[in-house]
Structures are given as C-alpha cells and as structure tokens.
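[agent] plan:
  1. take the single chain provided in the ticket
  2. run structure prediction with default settings
  3. attach structure tokens to the ticket
  4. add a short note for the reviewer (M.T.)
[agent] executing step 1
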Amino acid sequence: MALPAYRHLLRSITLAFRDDTRLLTSALSTARSNFESSRILPPAEAASKVAHAEEVAKVLRRNIVQGSSEAKEDGEKFQLRIHEDTERGSNETIKSAGQALMGGGGVGGGCCAGGATTPGPAA
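[agent] step 2 finished; step 3 output follows
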C-alpha cells in the first residue's frame, strides 16, 4: 500500500519539477525523509499518511506548471511547460461564476454594491 503511493509521489515530483534541479532534488529528498520517518506507524496512521501522499501526488501532477522566462526584444515572455496531465479548466465555469457574483451581469448589480445604484450628479 505504501510502496505504490511512494512511487506515484516520486513520479509526480519528477514530472512537476523536471526542469528545476534544485527543487527536484529537494522535493525527492523531502518525500524520502517523510516516508522513512513514517516507516513504523500504527496501521490507521499509516493509511492516513499514504492517503496524504496520494493527494500530494495528484496535486503535483494536475496543478503544478513550471514556467521559465525568456528575454525578448519587446519585453519578457514566459514559457509554460503544460503536460498531458495538467488540469485545464473551462473558462465558461469562470465566466458563469463571475456572472453570478455580478448579479446576472446587469448594470448596477454586483457583489459589493448589492444591486444598488449610486445617484448621479444633480441636473
């Protein structure tokens, strides 16, 4: 149970931090020391640690994207390393959440204004 979780975590760390040697080495070392220190635990606590390692592996695999900066003539640009396991959200969910906060997107609505309008200057 712990060995597959450990391997999954190592693969996820390697995928997430492939181009950053310092961070890759540190993350692998931390994973190893955490697993080594948890070697002799009661079964319930060990299962909790294994579940945590699986969750960390999932976050690393799906939600961590490395970027590197490239100096260009027209300014600095960033190159992102997005891989096949990177979670890609739909912009529609973000837009619909924003519309809900804005009170349906109408003028005068909004999350902070509570739909109230402010009076304009007297004519």
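[agent] step 4 note for reviewer: The radius of gyration is 23 Å.
[agent] ticket updated
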